[in-house]
Automatic annotation (TrEMBL):
Source organism of this protein record: Latimeria chalumnae
UniProt feature coiled coil, ranges: 500-527
Key words of the record: Coiled coil, Disulfide bond, EGF-like domain, Glycoprotein, Repeat, Secreted, Signal
Domain of life: Eukaryota
Transmembrane segments: none
Protein name, per record: Matrilin 2
Chief site of localization: secreted
A Pfam family this chain is assigned to: FXa_inhibition
UniProt xrefs under Gene3D superfamilies: 1.20.5.30, Laminin (2.10.25.10), von Willebrand factor, type A domain (3.40.50.410)
Record-annotated VWFA domain positions: 236-411
Annotated InterPro entries: cEGF, ECM_Assembly_Org, EGF, EGF-like_Ca-bd_dom, Growth_fac_rcpt_cys_sf, Matrilin_CC_sf, Matrilin_CC_trimer, VWF_A
Length: 531
């Protein structure tokens, strides 16, 4: 200066307090750096930096907000989205944000969306797919379903009809045919009408083929086709029938018809079979003795006149009465020296009110063949105490009276066997529903057709089949027949009962078939519904 001097420092330096030395201060101190946030000195210049949460703009001086998501402490489980002054969390597709605003849970897209699936909607990782019920396939639209046509997909091999099932198929046959064991081919139900069956008397269609049967008074030969006359031997036969209150008047009439059926299988005469009947309840009464009647017609008439007692059930007392009286000379029995077989058929529907074993054993030990028939509440052990050995041939049991006709046929077989063996004949144990004891004429064929409506409405009290004696069959069944029987024979009780029994069975079969048809219709409706 004019009087002295002063020291100064170069740009970037600051004069120290001694007024002589300089200290480097940096360009930032000059306040002309232009940094929006921070200025940082370098060796020769300076640079601008930004505060936390901001980044330097391309001009190197100004700053812009980086976003809260970038800070790394947002806590979002899936995605963080910056907002104007904060951030929000979001979830990946297929997930829903929980109430805490940060964590996520898997979403039910099927429940939350109009998925359009016809059958089933299935959630996947982040989407959904449609599925079909078993037996259906997904269509090209990936939403609707069509039933699987198994019959069209496979070479089913069905001879007649192929029916789709849930996951497979089954074969069915046209009306009038039945499916063979191979499950594919079919055969006619009316085998008798389609093959040379070779039956000497009657051919009957059965489930798996056909069977030959013989007219009444004949038995089937060992070849299963020919028939031979059953021997007309002698026999003393006594029926001991239950007349207790538990039986009921209606069922008592069934028992009487049962007796009539057995009588029809025998040759009734003084020199052949003789029949007597004892009824028991609280008391025992001989309805008629072995010597009372000498013809089948008279015996059946006497049976029809028997009155129902309707009280207790003293079976043991009845056996005692039979043993002491029924096979005596006074009541028409043949003497022991004649060696005529003696047989008793005991019928009961419940437990006896007294002991049966003592007098049953005495009867059996004396040579009387004992048959025991039980229906309903009859006690099997008691039946076995009454019956002769072997018991499988002498004990018969049924749940109800609808089976009486079957028992009658089996008993006819046993009686026929006994008579045949007495005469030294071989007798097959196959005895079928038989016709009246008439020599077979020249074989003919006849078709019986009865409307089902008539059968159902008239089942209890109506039966007419003109020009035939084979009353056991109806529908459209090919059978053998004899010339027209008398009106009396058509109206016999045993004929009506046998037809009634068979008709009941056929009605049950018809009911089953109707149920099967209903099931098929239901399946067809479901098929139409899902197509």
């Amino acid at each position: 200066t004019e009087e002295s001097f002063v020291c100064t420092c170069r740009a970037g330096f600051l004069l120290n307090p001694d007024g002589k030395t300089c200290t480097k201060t940096g360009y930032c101190a000059l306040n002309n750096h232009g940094c929006e946030h921070n200025c940082v000195n370098t060796e020769e210049s300076f640079i601008c930096t930004c505060c936390s949460g901001f980044i330097l703009n391309p001009d190197g001086k100004t700053c812009k907000q980086l976003g809260y998501c970038a800070l790394g402490n947002h806590g979002c489980e899936h995605n963080c989205i910056n907002t104007e002054d904060f951030y929000v969390c979001s979830c990946r597709t297929g997930f829903i944000l929980n109430p805490d605003g940060k964590t996520c849970r898997r979403g039910d897209l099927c429940a939350e969306n109009d998925h359009g699936c016809e059958h089933l909607c299935l959630n996947t990782g982040g989407y959904y797919v449609c599925q079909c019920f078993e037996g259906f396939v997904l269509n090209d639209d990936l939403k609707t379903c069509s039933r699987v046509d198994n019959c069209a997909l496979a070479d089913h091999g069905c001879e007649h009809l192929c029916l789709n099932k849930e996951d497979s198929y089954i074969c069915q046959c046209f009306e009038g045919y039945i499916l063979n064991d191979d499950g594919k081919s079919c055969r006619s139900k009316d085998i008798c009408n389609t093959i040379d069956h070779g039956c000497e008397h009657v051919c009957v269609n059965i489930e798996n083929g056909f069977a030959c049967k013989c007219f009444e008074g004949y038995i089937l030969g060992e070849d299963g086709k020919s028939c031979k006359r059953c021997a007309e031997g002698v026999l003393d036969l006594v029926f001991v029938i239950d007349g207790s209150k538990s039986l009921g008047a209606h069922n008592f009439e069934v028992v009487k018809q049962f007796i009539t059926g057995i009588v029809d299988s025998l040759e009734i005469s003084p020199n052949a079979a003789r029949v007597g009947v004892v009824q028991y309840s609280t008391k025992v009464h001989t309805e008629f003795t072995l010597g009372s009647y000498i013809s089948g017609k008279d015996v059946k008439e006497a049976v029809s006149q028997i009155k129902y007692m309707g009280k207790g059930s003293m079976t043991g007392h009845a056996l005692k009465h039979m043993y002491e009286n029924s096979f005596t000379d006074a009541e028409g029995a043949r003497l022991p020296s004649s060696k005529v077989p003696k047989a008793v058929i005991v019928f009961t529907d419940g437990r006896a009110q007294d002991d049966v074993s003592e007098w049953a054993n005495k009867a059996k030990n004396s040579g009387i063949t004992m048959y025991a028939i039980g229906v309903g509440k009859a006690i099997e052990e008691e039946l076995r105490e009454i019956a002769s050995e072997p018991q499988e041939k002498h004990v018969y049991y049924a749940e109800d009276f609808s089976s009486m006709s079957d028992i009658a046929e089996k008993l006819k077989t046993r009686i026929c066997e006994g008579i045949a063996l007495m005469h030294g004949m071989s007798c097959t144990n196959k005895m079928h529903n038989q016709l009246k004891d008439t020599p077979p004429p020249q074989k003919k064929s006849h078709k019986i057709q009865l409307p089902v409506a008539m059968l159902v409405s008239k089942l209890e009290n109506y039966y007419i089949i003109p020009n035939t004696k084979l009353f056991q069959f109806f529908g459209s069944i090919k059978i053998k027949y004899l010339e027209k029987p008398s009106g009396e024979e058509q109206c016999k009780c045993e004929n009506l009962v046998a037809f009634q029994d068979f008709a009941n069975k056929e009605v049950r079969k018809l009911t089953q078939r109707l149920a099967e048809m209903a099931s098929r219709l239901e399946a067809l409706e479901k098929n139409i519904e899902f197509k």
